[in-house]
Design a protein that fits this description.
It is found in: Nucleus. InterPro entries: DNA_clamp_sf, HUS1, HUS1/Mec3. This is Checkpoint protein. By secondary structure, the protein is an alpha+beta fold. Helix content is 20%, strand content 40%. It has 8 helices and 20 strands. It is globular. The chain starts with a strand and ends with a strand.
Length: 341
């Protein structure tokens, strides 16, 4: 079993791990000849299925295993990986390889940085330390130090992992969700997150429940709705609060007939919702704090399509810009269950 690669886009990789680690501390990572996949399946909350083209973050990619398509399955702690990548942001180069240290499998991240150094510049300052700072030679001109050169610094950080058997992961698959009632391209996630977080904080400040003689904040539920006429609505309601925000002029993307069984677009739930007019909405209710974590993916940029299965689930497809034109598109898929109340 062998895996080694250079990281071509450290900043994007770091932002990705930051976003993923906000939703789960451990990820199932599947590496093969075609793609890199990160999967997070927490006990509660949002599931993430991220499929990245190799070219979007890696180069000089080498993988080898006895499994079909040279597949390697890993259980990877996300916070240590993110910390290691943050330290590599200003690196000249970075590489990752699968190896063992003291019999324990690790992902070894090697970071190389170059800094300008001079062999005798410090001595020059020290030799003049006792000179008169206001003398005639206080600002004497000097020649450029010929010994100044780039100094290469190499730092290696090891991240303990588990190598998973193919049998242990073969039953894991993306949730099956019925055809959506509405699909819409979301506005700026940074803007949407700011408003969502504000709504959640206001609701938490005004909502309490009494249990065993004490009061505790109840997790607020945001109501998110979309129609098939370019509108998105975010709202929240408590006993003392009822606020909403509406976006208009958004895009409802056209569906690909080739992706639809029998290519029958007219009988899809989204077609029926569109025919019902702009006052017909598909609605989901989601945990405000979990939603705020999901929206942290906005730091990656890219186009985000939200698919609404009314009162059932919300699926986000986050399409990332690729490093090379013509490369396979990378997509992160978020599955968020809707609360029934």
């Amino acid at each position: 079993m062998r895996f080694k690669t250079s990281v071509r886009n450290i900043q994007t990789f770091s932002k990705l791990t930051a976003s993923l680690s906000s939703l789960g501390k451990v990820a199932w990572v599947r590496l093969d000849d075609d793609a890199v996949r990160f999967t997070i399946i927490p006990e509660t909350g949002t599931q993430v299925w991220a499929s990245l083209s190799i070219e979007s973050i890696f180069e000089d990619y080498t993988i080898q295993s006895a499994a079909p398509n040279n597949t390697i399955n890993l259980e990877l702690p996300l916070p240590p990986l993110h910390r290691a990548l943050k330290s590599a942001i200003n690196a000249t180069s970075a590489s990752i390889r699968l190896t063992k240290k003291d019999g324990i499998p690790v992902l070894s991240l090697t970071i190389i940085t170059n800094t300008m150094s001079s062999g005798n510049s410090a001595n020059g300052f020290l030799n003049g330390a006792n000179a008169d700072p206001f003398g005639d030679n206080a600002f004497r001109e000097e020649a450029l130090d010929a010994n100044m050169r780039d100094r290469e610094t190499v730092v290696t950080q090891d991240i303990p992992i588990r190598v998973l058997t193919a049998v242990s992961v073969e039953g894991i698959h993306e949730p099956r969700v019925r055809e959506p009632d509405a699909h819409i391209i979301l506005p700026s996630l940074i803007q949407l997150k700011a408003i969502s977080d504000r709504f959640t904080k206001l609701a938490m400040a005004t909502t309490t429940s009494t249990k065993s003689g004490s009061s505790s904040a109840v997790a607020p539920k945001l109501e998110l709705a979309a129609n098939m006429h370019g509108s998105l609505k975010l709202s929240i309601a408590t006993d003392s609060l009822n606020i909403s925000s509406v976006w208009t002029g958004l895009t409802n993307p056209e569906l690909d007939p080739g992706q639809i069984e029998d290519g029958d677009l007219e009988n899809l739930p989204s077609a029926k919702l569109k025919a019902a007019g702009p006052d017909a909405w598909s609605t989901v209710r989601i945990d405000g704090r979990d939603w705020g974590k999901v929206l942290s993916v906005g730091r990656l940029g890219g186009r985000v399509i939200a698919c609404f299965a009314d009162e059932h689930a919300l699926i986000l497809y986050v399409y990332l810009s690729n490093y090379d034109d013509g490369a396979d598109e990378s997509v992160l898929t978020y599955y968020i269950s809707s609360f029934s109340v």
